[in-house]
Amino acid sequence: MTENINKEPFQGEVSEYTVADKVLAKITKKVVDKVDGVLDLQGGILNSITSTFSNEEDSTSGISINQAESTCIVELSMILEYGKKAIDVFNEIDRLIKKEVYELTGVKVQAVKLEIVDLLTKEEFAKKKQAKEENN
User: Are 97 and 60 in contact (CB under 8 A)?
Assistant: First the structure.
């Protein structure tokens, strides 16, 4: 009697995993929060509405991820602290995001695109943040 059992039932299949955009955005948020000179990330109208309903620490407002296979492009909109050199802040963000995302997920960050949408002192930012919280 000959057994007709395939010894390798998964022959030809390729193992793979994917990382959700939200996970890459959360890693990016945690990295950016550590960079001196970044007061806040700022999203568009839709992002500000959705972040109102989520935990502020978990909010990825102001971060956009565009993935293709095992690479991604990270886009950020941020408020720069007055007195900090934009190019130095950008270089630190670029280096840290690429390093952290790759080390944690294996996804290579092809590019980091940063838009500085406002420039405030720490005091001005604190006043605006307080006024926003009082209005909510």
Answer: no
